[in-house]
Each structure stands twice: as structure tokens, then as C-alpha cells.
Fold this protein.
Amino acid sequence: MSIATLGAARIATETKTYFRSPDTLFFTFFFPFVMLAIFTAAFSAQGEVGPPGAEITIGAYYLPGMIAAGILLSGVQNLAVDIALEKGNGTLKRLGSTPLSPMSYFIGKIGQVFVTGALQAALLLLAGRLVLGIELPTEPGKWVTFAWVFVLGLVTSALVGIALSALPRSGKSATAVVIPTVLLLQFMSGVYLQWNMLPSWLQEIAGLFPLKWIAQGMRSVFLPEGWEVLEQNESWNLAGIAIALAIWLVVGLVLSRVTFRWIRRDA
């Protein structure tokens, strides 16, 4: 069987395993929903926020950030922890003795991330519109931007997650290594804090990582005209977003292939 055929078959297995894990469902799938509800309830009393003439509700402001966070959680956190655990419990060692190649394994993981990430984003948009009354874009161009930022961000996050799984020395230490790292990135990338409130030096550091660019791309889709003046260069810089994510995609792919092992190095 070809690499693609084995990978496609692996997607169904990975997706079923994902939805059968309560911990994974809460911390990667439902977590953005919980945070969106908390921030909306906590800060809605402040009224609308934003530049004069472009004010929006607090829920509308946090929606693009939660979509970006969902991409990061589905790709980086989910795969980094999951693969590290599979190394620790011997699952990868058993898979290594089968005809499954590393590339087929990667296809299965990335496919699972795409399925679950797309479902999560669709439900977030549905909840935002029906529950919080958030107005969604009507311009086709906005949804084209959403599509390429979402796909590029999701694949990039998945590859970075696979590469990051090589960092924990054991399955037990994976959550202690990965979750704080992911949480820190969310705070410094404008997900939980308004981007323009962050100091310039922190914005520069955040620009070295993909989440900042994913969040900026999502803000360009869901925030109205006028909000771009609060970005670093007072523009959405879509070309810069595409370039930054493409670079991280290549880096993630190379690191994933170089560092991936069916067994731990110390096994």
C-alpha cells in the first residue's frame, strides 16, 4: 500500500481515538469555547471596545483569538502531548514494526488535526453567531483569507506539534513541558490580552512564533475596518502572515522528519 493510502486510513483511527479521550476533548477541543464564554461574561460590562467608529462587543473581539488558539491547541498541544505519550507507552514502537512509514503516520496525525480543527472552528463560529450575537463577515474576500490562514496555520501547528513531541523525555512529563509553553504563547500573542496593550518588545518576541501571525490573520477577517491601526505596522500585513507561516511550515516539516523516532532515544 502507498504512503498516501496508509495515511488516509490512519486519519480515521486517529480521529476516533481523539474523540474517545475526555482529557483531550476538554483541553484542546472545548477549551476555546470555555475561554470565549469566560472573557465575554467577565468583560461585557465594560461595553464596546475598539477605535472610535469601529467599536465592537467584547465577544466579537475575542472570537478571532479563540479560533487562533483552537488552531494552536489542536495542532501543537494535542500532537506534542499525544505523540510523547505514544512513545512512552510503546504505541509508536509497535507501529514501527508495521508497514506504516513516518510520513503515513504524519498524514494520519495532520488529517486528524484538520478534521477536529475544522469542526471546532465551525462550532465556534456557530456559537458566536447564535449564542453571543456576533456579526460574521459577509464579504467573500474575508472568507478566502479565513480559509488560507486556517489551513496554513493548522498544518503549520500540526508539524510544529510533531517536532515538539521530541522535547519531553517521557510521556509523563509531556503535559508539564508542552501546556505551559502553549499557554505562554497565547498570552504574548494577543489571544487573551488585547494586542495593542502589549509592550512593543513583547510584540517583537511574539512575532518570532506562528501563533501571533495566525491570530493577526483571524483578526483581519473578523474585526471591522479601522482595527488595523492597532497592529504593529498599522496594517493587517497579509503577505507577512503568509510568509511567516510558510517559513514555520518548512521548519516544522524538517524538524519533524529529523527528530521523529518510533522509540525514545534512551529506550
